[in-house]
Amino acid sequence: MGNKVLRSETLRSGRVDFSYEKLTLENGLTVFVAPMEGYRAVQACLAVGFGSVDRRFLRQGQETALPAGVAHFLEHKMFESEDGDAFDLYARIGASANAYTSFEKTCYVFGATDQVDESLDVLLGSVSHPWFTEATVAKEQGIIGQEIRMYEDSPDWRILFAVFDCLYHNCPIKEDIAGTVESIADITPETLYACTDAFYTPDNMVLAVAGSVTRAQVLAALDRAELPQGGETGQKLRRPEPEEIVHAGAELEMAVSQPVLGIGFKERPRGADERLRWEVLADLLGELLIGDTTPLYRRLYDEGLVNSGFSSDVFSGEGYFCILFSGETREPETVRAALLQEIARLRAQGIADEDFQLCRNVLYGEAVSGFESPEGVAADLAACGLRDEPLFAELEILAALTAEDVRAALEELLREERSAAVVLRPLAGRGQTARTAEE
């Protein structure tokens, strides 16, 4: 049934005491198995290379355009079947389950200590037999509509997409992962079936299982499953994205106790072969600028201008690369100016070896900690599998980086002319407003 193992390799790193097995099945599915001594729990993650930015695709000569929010909508619906809800099946066998959609993938996960075989059957079965009707789609539109409204009340969520909206002209990263109430109203059963046919294919999925599990268990579950056998995976299409930003910023009002600041830098997207290295460099620059051991952070914190929630993040994928700094501050203009001044200082004076080593060690420790739980291992293996990257690649990159590498990256990254600042202010009156910096 296409579940024959074509290739098998055991992967190890000399930097951590950890190994896992990578299996490639005849039908194209990639499977990772990571037995972990001393753990009773098992964590499984089935990842699909279909996320919120995948809005247009070509399959069998036909181009399809999707409304915003389809990948997330599909995540909700894949738990349903004519025989019942997968969450109910998990609950009966004592497993906990969840699912989530990001910009580039959809993941279905479970954690269990008993009846692992049965839990694997539920996981694999939930993506094997999609079932959508007009009635169930209409019901889900109401449920997800409520979820969308809930996220609209989240300051962090509002800031994130407001910054993206300032930076990007065409890239779907600027649109909420769940879509809008209006966009999901256009979703039909036919829309969902078109997406499962195009993207829920074995060569576009990765299964990662970690913890108290064996290779034989996982392969037996795959033999029992009725996964789709091959099929043409949709070719993802992207609209061209100009290098320049849309506008330099925006101000919004919302029911918050103090202002929230978001500063985004639009960077040149990287190809798949260099993407991870540039993500690590961007992470390291964020740590050097605003990590809790840096002079800038300590000064801003001591002056009461930021709290421990002020941080940096990196968003990178096919067609986009953005570095974001965000958090609460009573003086957003002061904090923005201080951040830009610190970027300019590091660019002019260079990065001290001591600061570089300290921040690199922080990121290295965070990366190593991911190998300490089945949850982290399964999630990381699934993500790396979709991107065709070794699990240990980030550690190897961090270990090889020098202060000069980061200094050279700073010559290109974090340019003020490619940045936008969004300030979310406490409500001054009724309703919510937004205006661009040019107004």
Automatic annotation (TrEMBL):
Which GO molecular function entries does the Swiss-Prot or TrEMBL record give?
Answer: metal ion binding
Any idea where the Peptidase M16 N-terminal domain is? 63-171
Name the InterPro entries on file: Metalloenz_LuxS/M16, MPP/UQCRC_Complex, Pept_M16_N, Peptidase_M16_C
Domain (Peptidase M16 C-terminal) spans 186-362
Q: Which domain of life is it from?
A: Bacteria
Q: Name one Pfam family in it.
A: Peptidase_M16_C
Question: Which PANTHER family does the record match to this protein?
Answer: METALLOPROTEASE, ZINC-DEPENDENT PROTEASE
Query: What name does the UniProt record give this protein?
Result: Insulinase family protein
Q: Which organism is it from?
A: Anaerofilum hominis
Q: What is the lineage of its organism?
A: Bacteria, Bacillati, Bacillota, Clostridia, Eubacteriales
